[in-house]
Amino acid sequence: MYAEQDAKNKPITNSLTDSTKAYLATIGNDISSAYISGVRETTYDASRVQYKKTDTTVNGVFYDSIFVYETNPDSAKYLLNFSFVGNNKGNYIPTKNSNNVRVYKWIAPINGVPQGNSEPIILIVTPKSQLLFTFGLDYRINNKMSVRTEMGFSNNDKNLFSPKDNKQNLGYSYMLQANRFDSLKRNLVFSNSVQYEFKSERFQQVEQYRNVEFSRDWNINNTVNKTEHIARYQTLLIDTKHQIQASYKFSTFIRQKIYKGLKTGFLFLPIIKT
User: Fold this and answer.
1) Residue 10: what pLDDT?
2) Is 83 in contact with 123 (CB distance < 8 Å)?
3) With contact defined as beta carbons under 8 Å apart, do 3 and 139 qualify?
């Protein structure tokens, strides 16, 4: 079992007002909306970068509450904190003034698409928690057959301030495997293995539990969280008298509506003693 949780009363969250905490309680797991305004009206101070609030019309579209860098004490009444929000997601870009000090410049959207990468907001790192519980079972039915299972349950809460969307925090995965070994003759050993693996879209592991070759074998991005199904079958025939072995593998991998793959392989090898 693995458990990790941020403290809701840590200094960064203690500084939040009750109204901000109430707002965070409404956004659920949408932590991209976890921000507050970075605009503060204040008195003019020549040692600080300050802005004036204005409006403008570009290509027939009216924009209000635009902030422009200003040094005039009569209008430079706003102190702004900017955050990077991603390219084409903000309306401001960083630049330099005549004193080589960073300031931010507003750029008009084009066809409704923002052209900047920053906004006058303060991003909030919400307190989070993660719980992972796993267990497994191996059972030998007889001298020829055995079964194995593993299960995992996760609870990944991205915003401890909000009970909203808590059902989306839960995920699970499991694996079932059956093996059979048969001696056909004195020198022949025949084995079969069948395995099925399932992972729900919201299952959140702590560390990568698949082998490092998995992503390369299937040519996928392993950071995408989608419901996944994997089925595997393997058969192996060993001739101990002639020291040879032959195997056949078949597997299929399905990732929710975006990927479906099949893989087969046949191998014939001598047994090398060390």
Assistant:
1) 65
2) yes
3) no
Query: DSSP assignment of 67-96, as one string?
Result: EEE---TTT--EEE--EE--TTSBSEEEEE
The predicted model scores a pTM of 0.72
DSSP state of 111: T
Q: Give the C-alpha separation, 246 to 71, whole Å.
A: 81
∠ CA 230-233-234, nearest 5°, is 135
Please give the structure tokens belonging to residue 110.
């084009």
Residue range 37-93, pLDDT digits in tens: 999 999 999 999 999 999 999 999 999 899 999 999 999 999 999 999 999 999 999
Residues 142-174 have pLDDT tens digits of: 999 999 999 999 999 999 989 998 999 999 999
Domain boundary assignment for the chain: 35-123, 129-270
Please state, in angstroms and rounded to a whole number, the distance separating the CA atoms of residues 126 and 116. 25
Contacts of 159 (CB under 8 A, 6+ apart): 24, 27, 28, 29, 31, 34, 126, 127, 128
